[in-house]
Design brief:
alpha/beta; 15 helices; Rossmann fold
Amino acid sequence: MKIAVWHNLTTGGSARALHDHIKGLAARGHWLELWTNPGTDLDYLDVDAYIKKVHVVPLERQEKPSFWGKVASFFFEPDFNIKAMQAHSRTCAAQIDAGGFDVLFANTCQHFAVPFISQYATVPCAVYLGEPYRTFYEAMPVQKWEALAPFSEKGRHKYYLKWFIEDLWAERAHRVQVRHERLNYEAFDKVLVNSVFSSESCVRAYGTAPELCYLGINTQFFRPLYLPREPFVLGIGNFYINKNPEFALRAVAQIDARIRPKLVWVANMGDPNLVAAAKALAQQLGVVFELKEMISDDAILQLLNRASVFVYSSRLEPFGYAPLEANACGLPVVAIAEGGVRETIVHNYNGLLVSNRTDLMAKAISQLIDDQGLWDKISKNAIYHVGNQWQMAAGIDRLEMALAETSPKHISSQIHANS
C-alpha cells in the first residue's frame, strides 16, 4: 500500500505507538510519506529511516484568544486555532489527494484529539485515536462545564465581569470544539483504538463505536537483562494530574519505614507546579523521591531491570505502554484497576491490581517486596504474558489489515490478484 501518515504529536505513548506502526509497516514493504507541522517532535519520533518523504506544513497557533475572537465565540464561530488547523489540514489533504495514496493514516491530534484532516481528504481515511479530548468528558480534577461558584452580594460586579469575560465565551468556544470533534470523528472511514476501555470512551463521547486494534510491545528492546534488583519503586509518565504521581507518593509513604523503597519517576515533560508540590510532599511524608526527566530509552531499560516494583497510578489511562514494557523486563506491576490496564494486567498473574486507595497500593507493593516467591512467580509470568499475548508483530498485523480494509482500491487489487 501507499500510505500517507498525518500526525501532530510530541512525546508520549501515542508517539511511541506511531513510531512502532511506521517501522512495522515499512518493514513489510509499504510506501509511507509523513505530513506534520513544525510544532511536533520529529527527533523523538525518529522515523527518517522508514519514511520516504516528510512534508512539514505550517500551522499557526495563538496562545491566548484575541478580543474579537472571544466575541466570535458568542455566536459559536470557530476560534483562531480551529481555523488555523483547518487551513493546515486542507493543505495536507490536497497534497495527499494529489499523491495517489491508497489510504490516509492519521493519528491523535495533540490540540484537538480527533484530527480535522478527515473533513478534507478524499482518499480513504483511518485514524488511530488514543482517546477523546478528555478534559471535555471527564473531571480533571473538576468538570470543565461546572458553573461558577455563587456570588456574594458584595462581589456581584466582580462575578459578572468574570462570567462575561472568561466563562461565557470559553463555554461557547468549547462547545464549538466539541461539535467539530464529533464531525471529524464521523468523517473518518475507520476509527481504531487501543483498548476496549477506549472504545467505550468513544461511544460515550461520540455516540458510535470504533474498532479495537491492540498495540504490540517491542520485546527485542524491552527484555530481561537479569541485573541485580534494587530497593526502589519505579513510575513512568509525564508529570501531569492524570498520571496521578501524588497517589504513588502517598502509597509509598504508607509502607513501613524499615522497608520503605525510594520512588523513582521518569517523565519527558510535566507541570512545574505539580513537580514542586510533589517534591515538597515527598519531604513531608519521608519518601525518598527522585525525578528523572528526558532520559534515553536505554536508561529506562536499565531502570526497568533494576527496580523492584513498577507502580502505575494513572487515572483512566486508555491503554498504558509502561506496565507491559515493565512486564517484558520481568518487573511485576502494581496498578490501580482503572482504564485499559485491566485488559493488560491480570491480577495475581503478571501484576497486582488494587482499587483506588493508597493503603491498598502500599500493601501490594509491600507484599511483593516481602514475598520473594510471589515476586519470582509474577516476574516469570510477566515475561511469558508479554511474549505470548502482546508481540509487536501481532499489533502490526492488526493495523495492516485495518488499513487494507479502509482502502477499496487495495482490497480490489487483492481480490483480482487472488482470483
